[in-house]
């Protein structure tokens, strides 16, 4: 096969390998020149002869008039350029796949005559059952003439004459290759209106950007950020090794083409894996990610073959799109005999979220069980229906059905071990149950796999981060410093007040201490402590989060503390906050404060949840206790302020509230821990094998850190105790709460130690561990725990602690270190080696100048020349003398760095609001050392030119550019600038306004 290609890294590394792979996968290669022979003109995007042949071949029952009619209904002229691109794309897809829905989504139908007279026939444009009955063509450098200029997409895939896929290839040596493909040169231009390329987008199914080593996919609504997090990283059913064997390489490009563009997969994705939704008043197009396509394909196979209730477990980490996956599984199920589907959750919020996904994604008649009677109606007559319900409603019904029902259970690790699960199983004994979970359980007492069957598909934390489906989570521990007001300790206060209570016994007093005085949750509700934390949250959020457009959640330990947080944030005039929690009218806190001010009805809560996730909503901080910790999808949330003891799956689910991508600047989620849950994190992660939870949490050798903490906690129980005297040990552990705490800490320590024994760092703990084992056995043999009820004393003890505890500032347990441009020189000064300092400053200065060059080329080009001069002189002298080192070089480069950093300050001093104005000013100052004159000219130019740049793609509109050039000439000429200089300045000024240099 001879390919007509050019030369260069882009061709050799990306375009040519892609063509070779596609041909080996069964696509027919046709060069641009040969393909143009099949077209009447280069403004056409369809290959009409191939499309007509496909219609005749796939619909043999149609006569020639029917074929011609069908062709006319999909012809380009039926869709004027003036139509909305997304709306037209959605309508054309309905015709391509034979979809019939409301809103103008209808298939192609033609009139045909048979023995009964004139009948309507639905026309198929693709043969989805017999893939080889379709015509697959690949071409490169395809020419499409627009209204003025042509475009040449690198690769286009045609199926039956319809351009379904556009691939843009870039050199792997370009740093910003994806931005160039999506925003700067290619897709942005193709998708823009008014250029004459719209019809190519009308028919488009998938956009692919690749540089060989990396590859991303998107749709006509995807921006660079969305492309970035769309990596097709598995070629199911092929393994990576099989891709390597078949195609000679297994880079991201080969994997994407093998997995996504395999002929049957491409048509399957077109027919079954597309969703159009409206988000933030904008219509968007969504296509399945690789893990969704893979999992749904496996589920469909299970639906066809499984002969018992256990469909299987879909283990996809939080934030990977399980709601969409469930939607596509439901769609597959309906194709196998119109099977009824029921989606089960254990939280109202999840129920609503999934219902919204289904209805927006093409299931407009999906029902939601608001009452148990709705569930009963479904069970009585389920055929062909889709229902959303919470599992609790099954406990309220008694009827059963023998129908085969597809049961999709969300958060399957949580709800399947109680009476609701049994009632559900009883109501649908012939159901096929699929469990969806980001954190499945596999323990002796509880096992998601025992309930739902074998693992169907797994998409782990690390893989989702690599794909961009989720982002890393960073952890910072911050605990309030606490002290007791007055001379008495809490124990003394307790003895004085509780000890004098009638009927108080020593045993009951010890039990009360253990359950309330020493409990962290009780101390956590102390008002003075919450005041200090609220102030810290307000400062942190205002200084670090607010201005970037993100939001936050506070997880409070109780409803009382949630209200305290709300009141305190209001008092200090923090950014607007709102409580969402279970509450009734008339509820009163322990302090007697009525909570009605914060009461929300169920509908108000739902509205508050929906609004909070939008940037327009004024609420910046959401305060919760238990609600919204699971299933609440809020990508705008950047930070979770945690002041509650969460454990195991609940903890992993909660922290996942911040792992959703939002925009290109949200590169990580943040957990600020005021409660001290480091140990709980370790416990949560130990539920899984190390491979399963790899990437869930980012800490440097966190297990050794936790081991050290657990060892310290356990040994603290023996502080001041003579361990050689058994009697002293027994006396020291006489209080029951001390024994309980010792037992809990010992178990945590021994469990982590056991898991880390292979590391040499653990040997120091072995002697202590052996001794602790002996002491533990001694105590277990000696004592038994009391079982007295203590609930009636809870409020009294809480008041003692509230009155006694005072918060004394916040201490940072784990201090994150980030080197910014502003603190860089201070950071460098800590290095002792002058050579190391010079190298660091040089590299950082190069980075600053390159990042800002496009904003102000005149200013930064000058700095770049100065820097290069210093570096080159230094290189020359080192060539002559390897030992040469000039200590002044460091200072000279530092001065350039300071100048690069001082640009903003100088811009403000001169009164320029934008960097564009400052760039023009610097440009003028190169030949004119009159500040006042340059400022005046700059202001006049910006006043005339800036309004023109608000027009979309103004740089492609010759009329606007001509108008701008005339304005530049008039203004510069009025200030007596020479005509030769005006021509040079005009080009540079327009380039400054066109920042992307398109």
From TrEMBL:
GO terms of biological process kind: DNA restriction-modification system
Classification via PROSITE patterns: HELICASE_ATP_BIND_1
PANTHER family, alphabetized: TYPE I RESTRICTION ENZYME HINDI ENDONUCLEASE SUBUNIT (PTHR30195:SF15), TYPE I SITE-SPECIFIC DEOXYRIBONUCLEASE PROTEIN SUBUNIT M AND R (PTHR30195)
Pfam families: HSDR_N, SWI2_SNF2, T1R_D3-like
Name of the protein: type I site-specific deoxyribonuclease
Ranges of residues in domain Helicase ATP-binding: 303-458
InterPro entries linked to this entry: Helicase_ATP-bd, HsdR_RecA-like_helicase_dom_2, P-loop_NTPase, Restrct_endonuc_type1_HsdR_N, Restrct_endonuc_typeI_HsdR, SWI2_SNF2, Type-I_R_enzyme_R_subunit
Organism: Marine Group I thaumarchaeote SCGC AAA799-P11
NCBIfam families: hsdR
Assigned keywords, A-Z: ATP-binding, DNA-binding, Endonuclease, Hydrolase, Nuclease, Nucleotide-binding, Restriction system
Enzyme Commission code: 3.1.21.3
Family: Belongs to the HsdR family.
